Fold this protein.
Amino acid sequence: MSAVLFRFKSKTRPSWDFIVYILNIVKHIQDYYAAILGEFELVVLLTLLRLGNGTWGAAIRRDIQEKTTRELPVSVVYVTLQRLEKKGMVRSYVGNPSAERGGRRRRHYLIDAAGEQALGRSFRSFRTLTQGLEQRLESL
């Protein structure tokens, strides 16, 4: 591993401590980028916050379409919810079957602590970046 992955001018191999150190840096970089929200991830989390924990995907999609006047494919919300769940920002559970759905169950979504923290960071960053630009942005 060390001879193939690391090419040094000297003939000495890097120590395991050095390799562990580099891998630790890579892990922290991945953690940092996992905490950054994309635009649509932010929209989905804000909608889930507005509708409340326990909301299902179709209701989230409907609310986003109403608020943004943007037509969304069905899959885009579910793919984003899965990505947020993988990042640890959202959790889901399957509810009880309902007669109105022909006995099918709904998957309900909850914002996790990491999702709330990411929303708070995004909100504070956005507020700071737009400070003093409110009138100009409203006129665009």
